[in-house]
Amino acid sequence: MILIAGPCVIESRDSVFRIAESLKKYDEDETIDFYFKASFDKANRTSLESYRGPGLEEGMKIFEEIKKEFGYKTLTDVHESHQVQRVSEVVDVLQIPAFLCRQTDLLVAAAKTDCIVNIKKGQFMVPADMQYSVLKVLKTRGFETCDYETSKKAGVWLTERGSTFGYGNLVVDMRSLPIMRKFAPVVFDATHSVQMPGQGGKTGGDSSFVPYLARAAAATGVDGFFFETHFDPASALSDGPNMVRLEELEKLIEQIKAIREIVQ
């Protein structure tokens, strides 16, 4: 089971190391393929005044320290093509943000690296149309067919994070998981799926629904899960309302693993 977990954004070296230390149990679990996640720059914040992160160079230094200290595989998002090469020198997975999932130059730049490419499904996208984003990466890497096994071999994932439902809300259509899994391994992002955009210049959310959606996705059948987590979500500088508290994550992971065993 793929597990992507960590804070939304690098707030400080101390806070990110504190969170990383708390996630060691998952990296040591032989049934989990663990990736530590954090963002060096949140370029799509609602407001200009919102905290974005430490930036590219400082962020890469912190990722290098995390890899040296904990030995984790790491994941971070890239927003512009010129960032890709530098980031690929440090992290293992390049994540394409949902709003940029059709951005051809960004997808092609990521495909030219040796990293796994994790494409987040846009909130506005028809699930079946995500195959064309996958194909942009596959064709750049020399593959002509788009199916689950080819994408797995080529290192291309898709991540579901909900769909826009009117104004200020997202819903998760569980049908999207098997639809997208026809042409790539699928990760379910349970924390971004409970976002509530457009809450007075910022994005809100309701993390109480995270366990329900995660358990439903486990029953539907996916390859992995994505959780943003924090020791104090209320004080987090980005996505706090959606995050799972570190001490609550372990119980949820155990529930997911139990459901997966039944389904499999």
Q: Can you describe this structure?
A:
This protein has 10 helices and 13 strands. It has one domain (2-263): Aldolase class I (TIM Barrel, Alpha-Beta Barrel). The protein has helices spanning 13-22, 24-28, 56-70, 81-88, 104-111, 130-140, 148-154, 176-180, 210-220, 246-263, and strands at residues 2-6, 33-37, 73-77, 93-96, 116-120, 156-160, 163-164, 170-171, 186-189, 195-196, 204-205, 224-230, 244-245. It is of the alpha/beta class and 264 residues long. This is 2-dehydro-3-deoxyphosphooctonate aldolase.
Compact description:
It catalyses: D-arabinose 5-phosphate + phosphoenolpyruvate + H2O = 3-deoxy-alpha-D-manno-2-octulosonate-8-phosphate + phosphate. The chain is about 35% helix and about 20% strand. The protein has about 260 residues and is of the alpha/beta class.
Structure characteristics:
single chain, 264 residues, alpha/beta, TIM Barrel, 8-stranded parallel beta barrel, 10 helices, 19% strand, 3-deoxy-8-phosphooctulonate synthase activity, Aldolase_TIM, DAHP1/KDSA
How are the secondary structure elements laid out?
Layout: E1 2-6, H1 13-22, H2 24-28, E2 33-37, H3 56-70, E3 73-77, H4 81-88, E4 93-96, H5 104-111, E5 116-120, H6 130-140, H7 148-154, E6 156-160, E7 163-164, E8 170-171, H8 176-180, E9 186-189, E10 195-196, E11 204-205, H9 210-220, E12 224-230, E13 244-245, H10 246-263
Helix pairs in contact: 4-5, 5-6, 9-10
